[in-house]
Write a structure and sequence with these properties.
Radius of gyration of chain A: 14 Å
Strand order of the largest sheet of chain A: 2-1-3-4-5
Number of strands of chain A: 5
Number of domains of chain A: 1
Mean pLDDT of chain A: 94
Largest interface: A-B, 43 and 43 residues
Family (chains A, B): Belongs to the 2'-deoxynucleoside 5'-phosphate N-hydrolase 1 family.
Structural class of chain A: alpha/beta
Shape of chain A: globular
CATH topology of chain A: Rossmann fold
Number of helices of chain A: 5
Low-confidence stretches of chain A: none
CATH class of chain A: Alpha Beta
Oligomer: homodimer
Strand content of chain A: 15-25%
Helix content of chain A: 40-55%
GO biological process, one term (chains A, B): nucleoside metabolic process
Largest sheet of chain A: 5 strands, parallel
EC number (chains A, B): 3.2.2.-
CATH architecture of chain A: 3-Layer(aba) Sandwich
GO molecular function (chains A, B): 5-hydroxymethyl-dUMP N-hydrolase activity; identical protein binding; transferase activity
Enzyme class (chains A, B): hydrolase
Distance between the termini of chain A: 9 Å
């Protein structure tokens, strides 16, 4: 099982610690291809070294090889939206995790998409329960 | 010629007046399906009346029927990212317009995507020149 985890990088790193916790939990179910998204040393300037086209093509290859995309969608991110769009158009399974109390309005293109699941949560325990529930149902 | 214009709605409406100017210019080249994106009365709460799934399915149908996607990508928007991802995965032409002076880092998934064009601009005149250049080359 290959899992692509998507979270904001250049859109803002406020949730990096949370991403790391979700990634650690996802490892119970398979290989997380995008472990660097939870790296606390990764700033909103991005991946540091590699050029953008290298990052895009590497991440796209991972996305294409993944069995499932799990996205934390609370922080607004163009890249996460792009990854969800490509995954849905390619017919992949997508689970979105969202914290409504953050005060953001989730895009209608995500919340209204009939081909993905969105689960709202407050604590990491709840997020883990939604992940466990999703993998139990689909895999 | 059918044109899908993408700009931020729930991600923030600071650029709504600019979207309107771009949309007006795009009308020289064809029908702009998403004219409401430039509506100054449309707030970041979204489309008001319709449910999210109605919005998603209506916009997706427009996107699927469009010959080209023109996206203003300066304000970070999950929906714009999603639309770009779906359009690229479906093999559609995509032109992105970006104002670097705004201080945001454009996502590597957009700036590094080899299947779209990104044009940087400062004034509406420059944006119009990039649009004119793009349509001249491709249509």
């Amino acid at each position: 099982m290959k899992i692509y985890f998507a979270g904001s990088i250049r859109g803002g790193r406020e949730d990096a610690a949370l991403y790391l916790e979700i990634i650690e939990f996802l490892k119970n179910y398979g290989e997380v291809l995008t472990e660097h998204v939870g790296d606390p040393s990764l700033t909103s300037n991005g991946d540091g070294g590699p050029a953008d086209q290298y990052i895009h093509n590497r991440d796209l290859e991972w996305l294409q090889s993944a069995d499932v995309l799990v996205a934390e969608v609370t922080i607004v991110s163009m890249g996460v939206g792009y990854e969800i769009g490509r995954a849905i158009e390619a017919g992949k399974k997508v689970l979105c995790l969202f914290r409504p109390e953050y005060g953001r309005n989730l895009s209608a293109m995500i919340s209204g998409c009939p081909d993905l699941e969105i689960k709202k949560y407050t604590t990491i325990d709840e997020a883990q329960k939604w992940v466990a529930d999703y993998f139990k149902r689909y895999f």
